[in-house]
Amino acid sequence: MANRFVRQSKFKHVFPQPFKKNACYENLKVTTNAWDSNLIKVNPKFMAVNWKAGGGGSFAVLDLKGVGRVAERMPQFVGHSAAVLDTDFSPFNDHLIASCSEDSNIMLWSIPENGPISNISDPLVKLSNHSKKVGQVLWHPSAEHVLASTSADLTLRLWDVEKGQQKQEILGHSEVPHSFCWNWEGDKIASTCRDKTIRIFDPRANRVVISAEGHAGVKGSRVCWLGTTNYIATTGFSKSCDRQVNIWDTRSLATSVKSTSLDTSAGVLMPFYDADTNLLFLAGKGDGNIRYFEFVPDDATLYALSEHKSSDPQRGMAFIPKRAVNTNECEVARAYKVTTNMVEPISFIVPRKSDSFQADIYNDCPGPYPAISADQYFAGQTSGPKLISMTNGFVEGPRKEFVAQCSTSSAIPSSQSSQGFHPSQQQQQQSRSRAASTAKNQSFVQQHQVSQTADRDYKELYNELLLEVSKLRAEIAQKDSRIRELEHKN
């Protein structure tokens, strides 16, 4: 009879396991910019952190294997002229990343195999149609080379980054957008805004499908789509400044399906949802707590599971893609927590006694392969992500070379990219100018082949020094561990 009153769940006993200090990333110069972003993004190979730059804007990309204290002069991506506000890794190319900045530009970058060894200043593509700072960029979940961005110019824009084309300029926000997210198939976008309104867009049709009044508080709000369902979760504040998490049915936003007040802390709640386990993680900025809930779509209810508490407040956070979790340890999620000058990984583990693969807690998850192309998406096709099995553990994406079919100087405006157009005389002149510039650059490269050879020799020497430094760090870490063991015994 007791089982009638106890909710059965495979994830009821999920527990957090922070990594040891020698497996964290230290000595990071994290940006102090006041823009509300997560400051970090993670893919199975790299981690990108918005960097504190003396002039202009930059971000750093670290190899996840390079734990410990990072170099004092960390190689950075330095093409922006103002602070970098957000980055996002391509879901189908682990070596491709997009960044956006206060300089109103979006840039695409290629990441070397083991991460950069020197500053990189030349992007693959530069998209310049926004007129004010760009606050967020987010790749499409299933269509290759499709990117969305929001800006302080109150627009949401869609891009075909391979062609450098703006495909859609979406209006509807009356004030600066706070956050946005794609749905599972990528045919809808949900957003929250400073005007306290939640909106659901059909991005290809350039229209607001439905909108409603969101959280009543004046502070920042966030949104995330709850997997394959029609529900979204939003975090924000009530009029009395209580932090809230609300569940909404996107088919009818008249009122929230479920509203939960959490506490009275002042930091924005960052939501992260794992569609495979139905776990919703809420991390508060300025505090060290990570709450996690299980969402049950049948009754649209959030069930509180547990909470990770820490004395170190988090400034930002990201979760690694599901295909990269450690199935041998029954890890179902892994967060990367940003503090003042450190990134701390935190595993969330289902306690199991068996060492074999636990098929009941690992459903098929989105893989590193696109379901459709950008041309197919903008022609009207819709598809969810291609799923892969996790039976064999981590699946690394194929190494791809991104080849842009456009100039790196700017994007083609939407009025020209959405339909065929004939270039004006001014555009023809610009094209001739770009051709002349290309010829000049080729001549310059030929004249400096000797210099490039010297640069390669220098890079080989630099790599040897880095390898030696990493070995010394490993020895120091082992000795520190041994010292701590002896001290603990005494």
Would you write up a description of this structure?
- The chain is an alpha+beta fold.
- The chain folds into two domains: 358 residues, YVTN repeat-like/Quinoprotein amine dehydrogenase (Methylamine Dehydrogenase, Chain H, 7 Propeller); 67 residues.
- The strands form eight sheets. Strands 1, 2, 6, 28, 29 and 30 form a six-stranded mixed sheet that branches. A four-stranded antiparallel sheet has the order 3-4-5-7, with no helix packed on it.
- The longest helix has 41 residues.
- About 9% of the residues have low confidence.
Features:
490 residues; 32 strands; 4-stranded antiparallel beta sheet; single chain
How would you name the CATH homologous superfamily of the largest domain? Answer: YVTN repeat-like/Quinoprotein amine dehydrogenase
Into which percent range does the helicity of residues fall?
10-25%
Q: Give the helix tally.
A: 4
CATH fold annotation of the largest domain: Methylamine Dehydrogenase, Chain H
CATH class label of the largest domain: Mainly Beta
Give the strand content: 35-45%
Which structural class do the helices and strands define? alpha+beta
Number of domain units: 2
What is the tally of beta strands?
32
Give me the Rg, rounded. Answer: 23 Å
Shape: globular
Low-confidence residue ranges: 414-456
- For the report, how would you describe the main beta sheet? 6 strands, mixed
CATH architecture of the largest domain: 7 Propeller
On the 0-100 scale, what is the average pLDDT?
Answer: 87
Distance between the termini: 52 Å
In brief:
With 490 residues, the chain is of the alpha+beta class.
